[in-house]
TrEMBL record:
Organism: Apostasia shenzhenica
GO biological process: one example: putrescine biosynthetic process
GO molecular function annotation: agmatine deiminase activity; protein-arginine deiminase activity
Family matches, as Gene3D superfamilies: L-arginine/glycine Amidinotransferase, Chain A
InterPro entries documented for this protein: Agmatine_deiminase (IPR017754), Peptidyl-Arg-deiminase_porph (IPR007466)
Leading EC class: hydrolase
Domain of life: Eukaryota
Protein name (Swiss-Prot/TrEMBL): Agmatine deiminase
Keyword Hydrolase in annotation: yes
NCBIfam families assigned to the protein according to its UniProt record, in alphabetical order: agmatine_aguA
Alphabetized UniProt keyword annotations: Hydrolase
């Protein structure tokens, strides 16, 4: 089951003030990099729409489950950054880093970039070429079928969120599922995929800081939210950590910056040895819970500590490069960046992880990830700090599409 994470904004604001990046920043790799245009161009009479369908029954009742991220992928989805009130210098630097991430992932699996029509000129391709996908052409649902959950989105907190207009963002999941001709499970609960992690065997991990935040689902209790996770993700147990990474105010403590499964009953936990760092208290708090709990199958949780980089802060130069259009969250110099190596992407045979220019902890992360994933090639993306400036990191800006399981 495809559980759509929230993409960076794809609606265009302001004027483009830089030379086109062009195809040279998206070099030809082992797998293709596809594109599609604005989410607003959804037609219910299109061929893709006719092949898709909305399902109103909870996925778990139909036998669906959300697979673990290390299970085989059909492809990876990314959203192209462009908002000048969220990314500095009209997203010029962020786009270069996103291109590096896309190219790195494409060594292991196909990548599809969600690009607004106003940005299409950068890639020297026509809008018609944006929707060239490896869509299946089944006229009815096979026994094993990938489907997607279309959660409700409110820009990570509504009036307290990252920006004030998300009218196009809420169409992205529907657009993807129509183009891929996959069933869609619409849901009214507000949730971003980065706020949950699953092991593929019945266990979900999340944070109270995010899911119980009054800016998400104030009319739902913890029990009600947990029940919805079980019914829509196909899990049997939800592990709640109190808080996410220190400084992760953009997402209100997404779990994907704090802790993630790397295989059943084994997690990586963002860690620091510095007792004076505000993150230390959060890491200790999470460790105590994880060390005294079992997963859905009764197994004790093994915790592997992954040290965060030394504290990083937004510089004056970085802050002044972001336009203040009074419709997005202010980016202020001196703000601590929510930097964590836990925020990586698992591809088919590859690990794409952030590097922050901290030689000691960058090398530590590379070695530890290489040992945790011995059958994967670890690729560190230099300059991932740029993603932090706009919020999140590599796991936040990517979304795996599960491959359709082979029928036995």
């Amino acid at each position: 089951m495809l559980n759509l994470r929230s993409y960076p904004p794809v609606n265009w604001i302001g004027d483009w003030g830089h030379k086109p990046l062009g195809s040279q920043i998206l070099p030809s790799r082992r797998f293709p990099i596809w594109f599609f245009c604005d989410a607003s161009e959804i037609s219910p009479r299109s061929e893709s729409a006719e092949m898709a369908m909305d399902l109103t029954v909870a996925p778990a009742l139909l036998g669906y489950r959300m697979p673990a991220e290390w299970e085989p992928h059909q492809q990876c989805w990314m959203g192209w950054p462009e908002r000048p009130d969220n990314w500095r210098r009209h997203a010029y630097y962020a786009q270069h880093i996103y291109a590096q991430v896309a190219s790195a992932i494409s060594e292991f699996e196909p990548v599809t970039l969600c690009v607004s029509a106003s940005q299409a000129f950068q890639f020297d391709i026509s809008v018609e070429q944006f929707v060239v996908f490896n869509s299946n052409s089944h006229s009815e649902l096979p026994k094993y079928q990938v489907a997607g959950i279309d959660w409700t989105f409110n820009s990570w907190g509504g009036s307290d969120g990252c920006y004030s207009d998300w009218t196009l963002d809420i169409l992205v999941a529907q657009k993807i599922l129509y183009l891929e001709r996959l069933p869609r499970f619409p849901h009214q609960m507000i949730l971003e995929g980065g706020s949950i992690h699953v092991d593929g065997e019945g266990t979900c991990i999340t944070t109270e800081e995010c899911l119980l935040n009054p800016n998400r689902n104030p009319n739902m209790s913890k029990e009600e939210i947990e029940n919805e996770l079980k019914m829509y993700l196909g899990v049997k147990k939800v592990i709640w950590l109190p808080r996410g990474l220190y400084g992760d105010d953009d997402t209100n403590g997404h779990i994907d910056n704090m802790c993630c499964f790397v295989r059943p009953s084994v997690v990586l936990l963002a860690w620091t040895d510095d007792e004076k760092d505000p993150q230390y208290e959060r890491s200790i708090e999470a460790l105590k819970i994880l060390s005294n709990i079992t997963d859905a199958n009764g197994r004790r949780i093994e915790v592997i500590k992954l040290h965060v980089p030394g504290p990083l802060y937004m510089t004056e130069e970085e802050a002044t490069g972001i336009q203040n259009l009074e419709v997005a969250k202010s980016r202020i110099a001196g703000t601590r960046l929510a930097a964590s190596y836990v925020n990586f992407y698992i591809a088919n045979g590859g690990i794409i992880a952030p590097a922050f220019g901290d030689k000691k902890w960058d090398e530590n992360a590379f070695c530890l990830l290489s040992s945790v994933f011995p059958n994967h090639k670890v690729v560190m993306i230099d300059g991932a700090r740029e993603i932090c400036l706009g919020g999140g990191n590599i796991h936040c800006i990517t979304q795996q599409e599960p491959a359709i399981p082979r029928m036995k």
